[in-house]
Each structure stands twice: as structure tokens, then as C-alpha cells.
Design brief:
With 205 residues, the chain is mainly α. Helices cover 47% and strands 6% of the residues. Strands 1-2 form a two-stranded parallel ribbon. A two-stranded antiparallel ribbon has the order 3-4. Helix 1 runs antiparallel to helix 2 and helix 1 runs antiparallel to helix 7. The longest helix is centred in the middle third of the chain and has 18 residues. Bound molecules: zinc ion (2 copies). The site of one zinc ion has 6 residues, from loops. This is Transposase Tc5 C-terminal domain-containing protein. Pfam families: Transp_Tc5_C (PF04236).
Length: 205
């Protein structure tokens, strides 16, 4: 995807921070589901909160693709819970999945260096793809309800972590000849994978 390519390029140039990457990727999810919110600022503008890094306009200008014109608007401090649905309902779940994967890596695959730039990018890309699953559409929509928007409330749904790491996920890895224990269930092929075959091999069914 174009967005991913652009983010990759900026990371390789050492220009973009971890949290910024997350925000770029999540923006892709919102676009994909065409979540239609009245008065929501689209791609022409980038509405930032008052986090200090967003005040560094030179840094933001340096990572803006030349094909895009960016109009920067800043949300006053203290408004997150009211007007930032992704902060309310998306990023936390995203980070929870990433944290579960990195915690698991520390326990079981000490040679895996998830803090290196390339592995971090691959891990975020892997999680982002899983979170784009149609199985999570209700979860994504719920963020707007949670932030208090007057939008239809989705029926009950499961979170990314509940679907990726369900009860009983520990079993035999799907890959032929692999004797490792599975720890994650792919939301697309619904098969169980061990750490090596899901994260290190960058599962992309
Ligand atoms: Zn799969
Ligand atoms: Zn395996």
C-alpha cells in the first residue's frame, strides 16, 4: 500500500517517530472502512492534539509527502476524550496487541530484536494488517461511540486482542513440520501460528 511505502521510506531515512508511524497506519484503517463522521477532518488537513512533538512543525513538514498539501490544526489540550476517537478506542487496542507480541518475544525468543527499526516496522505492519480485518469493523466503529459521537452503536464485538489471542490458542503451529506451540490466531486464515511463523516470517496470507 502507498501509505505503508511512504512510512517505510521515512523510517529508513530516520525521520519519523514510533508514535507517528502508528498514527499514519491507523489513519489507513479509518480510510479503508470509510467511516463517515460529520465534520471529520479529512486528508487535506491534519488535526493534532497538543502533544509536544506535534508542535514541531519543521519535523512534520519534513515527513509530509511532496504529493500532499498539509494544513495543520491543533486541538486544545484536554479534549482527547471528546473529539479523538482513535485515542479513545483504537490506539490502546493496537498497542495492547503490539505489547502482547513483544512480551511474548522477550519470554520465548530472546534473539528477536523487536526494537530495531526494521523489526518494529514489520511488527507494526503485521498488526496493522490484522486490525484491518473485516472481523474488527464493529470494534473500529465503536471508537466513535465511545468518544460520544451520535453514531449507531455497533452490536457486541470482540477486541483485536480477544480475537488474536483467544482462549485455547496454545496448540500446534499450523506450519508443516513445526513443533512449536502456537500463540496467535490469524484473523484472515483463522489458523494458529507460533511466534516464528507469525512474526519472524511476517505472516501474510
Ligand atoms: Zn493468515
Ligand atoms: Zn511454527
Amino acid at each position: 500500500m502507498e501509505l505503508e511505502k511512504e512510512v517505510r521510506m521515512h523510517i529508513e531515512n530516520g525521520k519519523i517517530l514510533h508514535d507517528s508511524v502508528l498514527r499514519f497506519l491507523i489513519a489507513g484503517i479509518i480510510k479503508k472502512y470509510k467511516i463517515d463522521i460529520e465534520n471529520f477532518i479529512g486528508s487535506e488537513s491534519w488535526l493534532n492534539d497538543s502533544w509536544n512533538s506535534w508542535k514541531d512543525t519543521a519535523a512534520i513538514d519534513s515527513v509530509t509527502p511532496s504529493s500532499h498539501k498539509l494544513k495543520l490544526l491543533t486541538i486544545p489540550a484536554g479534549c482527547t476524550g471528546r473529539i479523538q476517537p482513535c485515542d479513545v478506542g483504537i490506539f490502546g487496542s493496537f498497542k495492547k496487541v503490539v505489547k502482547t507480541l513483544t512480551n511474548y518475544a522477550q519470554l520465548t525468543n530472546s534473539n528477536y530484536k523487536f526494537q530495531t527499526r526494521d523489526e518494529t516496522l514489520k511488527l507494526l505492519s503485521l498488526v496493522w494488517r490484522q486490525l484491518c480485518s473485516p472481523k474488527l469493523e464493529k470494534w473500529a466503529r465503536y471508537a466513535w461511540v465511545a468518544a460520544g459521537y451520535d453514531v449507531p452503536r455497533p452490536a457486541s464485538f470482540e477486541t483485536p486482542a480477544q480475537l488474536l489471542f483467544p482462549r485455547g490458542v496454545a496448540g500446534d503451529c499450523t506450519m508443516h513440520g513445526c513443533s512449536s506451540t502456537s500463540f496467535v490466531k490469524c484473523l484472515y486464515c483463522e489458523k494458529l501460528f507460533c511466534f516464528e511463523h507469525f512474526v519472524i516470517d511476517h505472516h501474510n496470507c
